[in-house]
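Recall the central idea of this unit: under ordinary conditions, the amino acid sequence of a chain determines the structure it adopts. In this exercise we apply that idea directly, starting from the sequence alone.
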Amino acid sequence: MKQDVAQLRNRLRAAAAQVPHGLSFMEVCGTHTVAGFRTGLHAMLPANVKLLSGPGCPVCVTAQGDIDLMVDVALEAKVTFFTYGDMLKVPGTRGNLELARSRGAKIKVLYSTLDAVKYAQANPAEQVVLGAVGFETTTPATAVAILEAQKLDLANFSVLASHKVLLPALRALLDGGEVQVNGFLCPGHASIILGSNAFRPLVRDYGMPCVVAGFEADQMLAGMARLTEMVADALPELDNVYPQVVKPEGNRVAQAIIAKVFEPAPAKWRALGEIAGSGLRVRDAYAQFDAVRRFGLVAGDAPEPAGCRCGEVITGRCTPADCGLFGRKCTPLAPVGPCMVSSEGSCAAWFKYGRGSDNATTRRSAKEMVA
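Accordingly, the structure predicted from this sequence is:
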């Protein structure tokens, strides 16, 4: 049910007025990043309440070495490579997938993971690789593709998985101590799978207020109001203002499918480095569908693009406005980093909705926003 925006703004302002210092909350979802600009949320916030970007864009957090691995597989292994559209323009150290396609690599954009399975079934002479990225939201679909390939006994289908698990990254961010946040606006999409209870350890172990919210203006305002009220009352809690979609226990069926096909593994994140248990590796029972094992792949370390501050943006240490490349050398037509490529990237959202805006909030630097 839609809530009254004016009433929510009054609640937020009343709570913010009780806090004598600035408040910085972090959105843990790329869709929240875009929705915040699309709905004008930043302009509705009190002067002492700010919303920073977090590591919630799956394309943006994919390590540079993993991007290079995808490009190398597509070019050198002579496979038919399926992936999501957002991945095509993400720059690696040796170009991107779109450039690889212009050099002869066979790359296709998928809308469903089963597109790749069906193609492999129809083209048994080709090796088909699914380049899969994303958090718990997209992981079940990758698992289903592997199970379907097993059912069809496909010998020419495998998955290059760069799936990540959200909670270990948030713990790493808090443990690092570089970013001071007062609470998390937790992701609506991933929480459908995870369940709102998944974020309870952040409240218990770090005293961090957490609110699961949807993506409309009233839903995000409700989340921000609750977070601010928790800080004002000095009572960090877990709340779910998206109960019509997100349940405490999440989607048990999807969780079981993920656990059946994947197991936890270390993973490298842009800006956060390697985090134990934050990745997902194909289990031994499905090893024949693991592209890493099939092709003997090893992801190397790769430097970030020179001057690109995407890693700092997605960890709340700066905003796109702080980056000297933003809007100059780095634009949607000529992106330098993944934050400008992905439809959920902070830089893409700032460029589309905030650049040149009359809303001063969108032009403030991170230092001003956390002051």
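The longest helix spans residues 217-233.
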